[in-house]
Every structure is written in C-alpha cells, then in structure tokens.
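Dear H.,

Thanks for agreeing to be a second pair of eyes. The structure we're designing against is below in token form, covering all 121 positions.
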C-alpha cells in the first residue's frame, strides 16, 4: 500500500492479504484450540508435558470471549452472517461483538454503512 492508501479498517483498507484471508470468530478459534488440546492430551505419555504459555493464554482468551459454545451454534452464526455481502473481517467482528442494533453495528464496523445504505435505498 502506498502512503496515500494508509490502512484504515473503517473503510476496509486493511491490505490485500488481509482482505483475501479467512477470518475466524473467537468461537471458531476456541473450537480449533479445544480439538488441538484434546489431541495433545491423548498423545502425551508424560503428565509433566506442559502446553506453551502462548497456547494456554490464547485458549483462555477465546474461551472467555466466545459468545457461542457449541459447534452447531458457531456454524449457524457463520451461515447467517454469510448471507449478507460482508467481508471476512466484517463477518468476524460482528460474530465476535454481537451488536444489538444496526446503529451499534455501524459504530463498531463503519464500513457497514455502505451495506446498510444499499439495503435502505
């Protein structure tokens, strides 16, 4: 990106790599880390074998801030949000923050103004 095209999430100027990337909601990351934790526990013969601090802290964080706990709910949320013309970034932010009104959603993700305006015209 050039200096003129400075990154700005409000306008979805977040870089081509990020726009093309698959963004995950906290609840999706929690499910992935839960599965990985189960695998590590099953493979470990040594009870003193400890997880890395980064893994543990990441797991705690996504568990704490996950709105949806079971896989079916997570899948349903992604499907519902995917019906709209949202970028991956917008979808994951909305899935994580769960705004209650359109105004609240636009305040959190200003790039949604374009979609909200298009729906109302």
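And this is the sequence the design step returned. I haven't edited it by hand at all.
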């Amino acid at each position: 990106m050039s200096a003129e095209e400075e990154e700005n999430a409000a306008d979805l100027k977040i870089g081509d790599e990020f726009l093309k990337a698959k963004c995950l909601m906290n609840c999706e990351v929690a499910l992935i880390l839960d599965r990985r934790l189960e695998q590590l526990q099953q493979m470990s013969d040594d009870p003193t074998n400890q997880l890395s601090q980064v893994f543990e802290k990441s797991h705690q964080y996504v568990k704490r801030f996950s709105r949806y706990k079971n896989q079916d709910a997570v899948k349903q949320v992604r499907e519902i949000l995917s019906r709209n013309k949202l970028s991956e970034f917008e979808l994951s932010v909305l899935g994580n923050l769960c705004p209650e009104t359109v105004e609240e959603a636009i305040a959190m993700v200003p790039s949604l103004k374009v979609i909200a305006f298009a729906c109302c015209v």
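Two observations from my side: Helices lie at 16-20, 26-43, 53-64, 71-82, 88-97, 102-108, 112-120. The chain has seven helices and no strands.

Warmly,
E.
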